[in-house]
Amino acid sequence: MEKRARSAKVIGRRDASARRRGTNFLLCGVYTCCLFTIIRFPNLSPYILGSFPLAPTTPQQQQQQEDGGRLWEIVDTPNCFHLDNICSWKDGWFYDHGPHSTLDNTTHMNQPSAALILDKQLIAEHGWHDPGTLDIDFRIHLNISSTSHGQYDDNMCSYSSTPNHLVVQSFYNDMMGEFYARTIIGLQQLMRMYPPHSNDDIQTYIHFINKKWRIFEGHELFLSGLPNNNELDNFLSLMPRNDSCRCFRRLILCGYHGVDEHDETLDGQWKEYVNKTGDGQQNRYLISPTHGIEEKNASASKWQELRVELIDGISKRYNDLDQKIRGYQRQVLFDQGLLGGDIENSTRNVDEWKFVGLARRKYRRSWLNINDTLSMCNERFQQHHIVCLIVDVEDSESAEEQLIMHRSLDAFIGIHGAQLTQGILLPSHGLMLELLPYIPLNGWGGWTACTEAPTALGVIFENTDLNHFGYSLGTESCSSSCNLGFNVRDFNVSTEVIADFLSTFVLKAGKNSTMTCDDMKNETEERERFVLYNAFCQPSLSERAFINEHYYHARPRLEEDEEDKED
Ligand SMILES: *[C@@H]1O[C@H](CO)[C@@H](O)[C@H](O)[C@H]1NC(C)=O
Ligand SMILES: *[C@@H]1O[C@H](CO)[C@@H](O)[C@H](O)[C@H]1NC(C)=O
Ligand SMILES: *[C@@H]1O[C@H](CO)[C@@H](O)[C@H](O)[C@H]1NC(C)=O
Ligand SMILES: *[C@@H]1O[C@H](CO)[C@@H](O)[C@H](O)[C@H]1NC(C)=O
Ligand SMILES: *[C@@H]1O[C@H](CO)[C@@H](O)[C@H](O)[C@H]1NC(C)=O
Ligand SMILES: *[C@@H]1O[C@H](CO)[C@@H](O)[C@H](O)[C@H]1NC(C)=O
Ligand SMILES: *[C@@H]1O[C@H](CO)[C@@H](O)[C@H](O)[C@H]1NC(C)=O
Ligand SMILES: *[C@@H]1O[C@H](CO)[C@@H](O)[C@H](O)[C@H]1NC(C)=O
Ligand SMILES: *[C@@H]1O[C@H](CO)[C@@H](O)[C@H](O)[C@H]1NC(C)=O
Ligand SMILES: *[C@@H]1O[C@H](CO)[C@@H](O)[C@H](O)[C@H]1NC(C)=O
Q1: Atom 6 of ligand 5 has which residue's CA nearest to it?
Q2: Does residue 286 surpass a pLDDT of 90?
Q3: Ligand 3 interacting residues, C-beta cut-off 6 A
Q4: Which of 163, 263, 389, 390 has the highest count of CB atoms within 10 angstroms of its CB?
């Protein structure tokens, strides 16, 4: 297995291939390194300047574009570009130059030739997908010659009533945390800059590089917080078909990277291909999937802005959400016999309770003693008006259900991993506890367990109005299976650790907090294995203002570390 984070005590070290694939930063403390990929893009070749003009261009801009020639080359979004009046039929894609086209002939002649390059080597080079395990979906293709025309057939072809069809791609987009941090945030910032007239103007598609990946409710959920017509589909669904010719006013692709045709890593077959489709012009685009969508307007509070906007956007898609959340909470209480009388008309107030979700995963990294933890919590904490419940996204049948499940919680506890991404849906002042897998000293997977900075997933809670904690599991969590990779081994968590978290933090912080920032800091520091990555707290209880504090520290020394040193 690849060892990603090594021991070097270097801050901000870059490796040689970082030039291409973004920059890897190693943040190292004494015991562990946290490795992050900061999505950053190199200077791009002129081929891939793109634009994302979801708003109509002004007559003045239109004029500038015409003077400057090419409609698709404005605006500073180097990994999005668009093709206009494009059709998909039979074995390929072509531009419609016919009477239904909205571009004049001159502009048309400047439409680029484009080839989407799905090349194992190139993808591996730009990211770190292991080329050996990647089953690239070659059913997806987009190759179009700038002079392709004359194929439009009025009897066969028709334009979609949705003007913009947006394809999003990012590496590891089968994993929700990665999708959130590589696609959703960049897209939100872009849409803020180029807001569409209405949700109906955009239909979104996901491009999964890997053939086996598919759309999950989580994808749907997060995308439904951004403008689009709610008809999410796989990019594959746009591929040319014999039985119908479909045309689109605008096809926008985001999450791609320009490839220089002289790139030495470019496979020979693609060079040939470029020659075939390039029409001998300089106006051609060779694009390859890249890390994700570049952020264009990031601020220190970007994760909070994203969270607020998504929750707002998602909520607008559903009716009576507050009532449904209330109903779900009542059901939880009812199921545990905590509602006096009957579920509909109990006078007991759900607001008196705090709801704590324990995240269950069915395979890989499952929480073995989750049931003991649930029993412990409900036996010992119901008297304090804390009720625990199992949260399993795989049990949900819709994006709405996922939203309600998480929006109902005051606290959410689970192992580092994609399902904690839904924690961003917690209400303000919510508490997140990320259980950090045991990683041997300098072992593979350090980025899942770091305490000097948020974990690779945890960054999404940074500077939000949530309290994000971590707890470092030791070998007691995995007994005989500690030698397996963190990503596949199951774990136990001492119920006393959870009890301590509930009584120290869930009871006193969060909703109706009686803890100041200092209290939270001190309580965390007294517990070596806890870290408080992001506190949303009051400097003093007399002030109503809440601020963000970060109480990072070096990874705690675990008893096991001595033994680890031997290997
Ligand atoms: C486009 O590329 C695909 C895959 O390489 C190929 O099967 C198809 O024939 C090409 N279409 C055109 C019009 O060149
Ligand atoms: C484009 O050129 C074709 C002939 O090549 C002509 O029939 C058509 O009207 C022109 N369209 C526009 C918008 O100028
Ligand atoms: C950039 O983000 C800030 C908030 O962080 C927002 O107020 C501003 O409108 C954004 N700018 C653009 C051009 O969208
Ligand atoms: C489409 O039609 C072409 C020729 O008419 C044929 O070779 C091809 O197999 C057909 N493709 C599909 C998916 O039916
Ligand atoms: C592509 O075309 C150029 C000039 O037309 C030629 O020099 C070059 O060898 C061709 N490359 C390939 C890979 O066919
Ligand atoms: C509460 O529900 C019970 C059983 O459905 C019903 O008999 C009772 O009248 C209800 N009380 C109120 C106040 O609606
Ligand atoms: C929190 O305070 C509100 C009033 O501000 C009260 O109604 C509610 O019961 C309190 N909740 C808890 C869990 O103490
Ligand atoms: C927890 O209990 C449920 C039934 O209450 C059972 O289906 C599940 O397998 C148990 N989980 C574990 C990890 O023991
Ligand atoms: C988890 O705890 C159970 C019960 O104590 C024990 O039987 C099991 O071996 C533990 N598993 C791991 C992986 O630590
Ligand atoms: C936190 O700890 C510091 C240092 O031990 C102490 O000075 C301070 O009074 C403590 N604050 C609170 C709120 O307990």
Answers
A1: 275
A2: no
A3: 192-193, 297, 299, 305
A4: 389
**Three-class secondary structure of residue 313 per DSSP:** helix
272 C-beta closer than 6 A to ligand 5: yes
The DSSP call for residue 516 is B
Q: Is the pLDDT of residue 179 over 90?
A: yes
Is the model's pLDDT at 80 over the cut of 50?
A: yes
Please name the helix (run of DSSP H) or strand (run of DSSP E) that holds residue 59, with its range, or none. Answer: helix 59-68
The C-alpha R_g of the chain, in whole angstroms, comes to: 26
Exposure string over 547-566, b if 16+ CB within 10 A, otherwise e: ebbebbeebbebeeeeebee
- Strands laid side by side in the 386-391 sheet: 386-391, 354-359, 411-415, 431-436, 467-472, 530-537, 547-551
Instruction: Give yes or no for residue 38 having a pLDDT over 50.
Output: no
C-alpha 164/C-alpha 82 separation (Å) is 10
Task: Report the nearest atom of ligand 4 relative to the CA of 91.
Answer: 1
Which residues line the pocket of ligand 4, CB cutoff 6 A? 90, 242
Name the β-bridge partners of 93: 88
Alpha-carbon distance 457 to 417, whole Å? 7
Please give the span between the terminal C-alpha atoms of the chain, in angstroms, as a whole number: 15
Alpha-helical segments (H) within 231-353: 268-277, 302-316, 321-335
pLDDT digits (tens, 9 = 90+) for 427-442: 999 999 999 999 887 7
Pinpoint the alpha helices (H) of 295-448. Answer: 302-316, 321-335, 370-381, 399-407
Q: What angle do CA 176, 305, 297 make, to 5 degrees?
A: 90
Ligand 4 centroid from CA 241, angstroms: 8
Q: What angle is formed at CA 427 by the lines to CA 424 and CA 428, rounded to 5 degrees? A: 95
Tell me the C-alpha distance between 516 and 522, whole Å: 10
Backbone angles phi, psi at 64, to 5 degrees: -60, -40
Residues 255-278: tens digit of each pLDDT: 987 776 666 666 666 666 666 655
Compute how many other C-beta atoms are within 10 angstroms of the C-beta atom of residue 536.
Answer: 25
Q: Of ligand 7's atoms, which has the minimum distance to the CA of residue 349?
A: 9
Q: What is the pLDDT of residue 83?
A: 83
> What are the φ/ψ torsions at residue 358 (nearest 5 degrees)?
-105, 120
* Gap between the Cα atoms of 502 and 489, Å rounded: 26
Question: Given the DSSP bridges, would you call strands 354-359 and 233-234 parallel, antiparallel or unpaired?
Answer: unpaired
Strands (E), 5-47: 23-28, 33-38
Q: Please give the helix or strand (H or E) that residue 286 lies within, else none.
A: strand 284-289
- Which residue's CA is the closest to the ligand 2 atom numbered 9? 99
Distance of CA 500 to the CA centre of its chain: 31
For range 98-123, the mean pLDDT: 74
Q: Report the distance separating Cα 488 and Cα 485, nearest Å.
A: 6
Which residue's CA is the nearest one to ligand 5's atom 11? Answer: 272
Task: Provide the residue type at 415 as one letter.
Answer: I
